[in-house]
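Throughout our pipeline, every protein is held as a single compact record rather than as scattered files. This encoding replaces a full spatial description with a residue-level series of whole-number codes. The remainder of this section carries one protein's record, kept here as part of the documentation.
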Amino acid sequence: MITYDQLRHSPEIRTYIQKADESLRALGFTEHSFAHVTRVSETAAYILSELGYGEHEIELAKIAGYLHDIGNLVNRVEHSQSGAVMAFRLLDHMDMPPEDIATVVTAIGNHDEGTGVPVNGVAAALILADKSDVRRSRVRNEDFATFDIHDRVNYSVEMSRLTLDKERRTVTLTLDIDTSVASVMSYFEIFLGRMVMCRKAADMLGLQFKLNINGQMLI
């Protein structure tokens, strides 16, 4: 089986991730490079591990997490679909079994809001892991005076943590937000679609999605 560690050390794949992130940097987007994809991989693995999924599916979730934003190399628009096609080509070339390719490609093709649907456990874990990665360190604009709402909201997040409670069957995104930078309402203004997607992903996993901002449970 192709492993997560193999992908992380593939010069070919690392180049595509780096170049995809360079395109997003040019467009003014937040960081989508190795820090983001590594965090998404590890969080997706944590979710499935806590739920008792097998090591094989956990490994596939890590692979999907690492490759999920590679489609930004083509274009930001519909990057989940182009990324899924790229992942298919790369993993097929590496002789990954078709069933495993299908799981990874499905997860990648369904991870973005608007078109994505948590059709299986790996896809649901990827959605929760990706949409919960909101943090100050992802903002690359160094001129606060020129921050747009996305910069302000991401920069306002001083701490973000996704935790799963198996007994209560909940998955909670906890955020500490500096409201002098961006209001809680601003967070919902740009991330409501993502939170709805997280709720659907949690439902698929038999969980209830909760959102805690500054100590207040809002969802």
Summary: DSSP finds nine helices and four strands in the chain.
